Amino acid sequence: MTGFSVTFVANPDGWGPCDEYNKRVKSGQLRDDEHQRTIVQNLQDLHDMLAEYQAPKVVHPSIESLRPQPQSLFRSLFHIKPPKAQTNVPPNLPKGLYMYGDVGSGKTMLMDLFYDTLPHNISSKTRIHFHNFMHDVHKRLHAMKMDHGTDLDAVSYVAADLAEKGSVLCFDEFQCTDVADAMILRSLLKALMFHGVVLVTTSNRHPDDLYKNGIQRASFIPCINLLKTRLRVLNLDSTTDYRKIPRPPSGVYHHPLDKAASSHANRWFEFLGDVKRDPPHKAIHEVWGREIEVPKASGKAAMFPFKELIGRATGAADYLELMRSYDAFIITDVPGMTHRERDWARRFITFIDAVYESRSKLVLTTAVPLFQLFMSPEEIGEALHHGRQKGSVKHEEEHEGVDDVMRQMMDDLGMNMQMLKNSNVFTGDEERFAFSRALSRLSEMGSQDWVERGLGMEHRGGLHEKEGWQRVRSRWREDSL
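Below the sequence we write its predicted structure tokens.
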């Protein structure tokens, strides 16, 4: 592709990626592949959400609104920058897809399936090679600067122009190797999302590996965070366990609670359980004369809606009994827990600690990103404000935004504790530490190493690796009695 491919959709109603995949398998164009089918189901999930999506009308900002606002004397004296204009992503924007894999993993074919079957209500769509896209963006930015000078936010204006070309933007071969691209990508992509554009992209590397060792890479990290938060990251490279069953292509955590959440939970339950030899069923366990009901169990996997596990008066003894009986837990419909749901939050943290200490697997579908589970953006914003007043948190201009601060908390226990000390939500250092540690542990339990350890994945040693891990788990069970 040499430039923009803007197409007006004429796809028949009800025909989606799964239908097209089945048609091509039946005709012999494609070989039926179980792993590919799980990827195609993710495409279908997004297709179904787009069928009900109405993108907002693109409103172009005026040139004057993009120029820096004059500073007051007070701000000038104290070197305080004026607040940035808010570019909040519409709450109804469907979560896009980021599909990565090696050469031969089917990236182009999968993008064809998705692009060619977009629902009829998506009135226009754009597909372009990412290199050509960025070349076009820089040409537009240069023209803006020639016409209006350099002292304006040209990226926001260009993003509005691009958003008018289509409410679905598909990139082939997303990559970042140029510092000029790296410095504008986050603001460009977020501005596109602000205008209601759904992004779908292929790449040969995970977002975490983009622009690796690049100049000023720290300034690119917010772009990586945006991609991981606003797009569903799918690994196209098929990995199977000793049973020859491919692991789900997505990570273990899923948000928001959209149409794809249920299929995410079910795929992981089927993979972590043993549905062929032990069909899903209810199970009852007894703790100190009380019964705990597991709504759905198979093999060593248990699945609960959040309110059935945490919404009830359960505690550490209940969770410990569950850890002795199961190796994997799929918890669905997890809400964000602000100061009004502190009891739920405390119970959930106790459960997280039990899962972590038993080295079990944890799969979640959540209403909000993980870093918003225990503090809302408003509560984080308040903590940031107090921290800046005290001088314990950097000034606003040194951060890209509240979301970036919250995501950093997932990986930085020290920063997490500092933020929580600036919040009025928590009642003492012990509680702050428990919440901080929970975020850190959730981050670790979402890593590939944690998820695949003990599953007998072929690239890790197959059944031999699984048996070795089972001996480790057996010793833990004995120690916990």
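The chain is about 45% helix and 15% strand.
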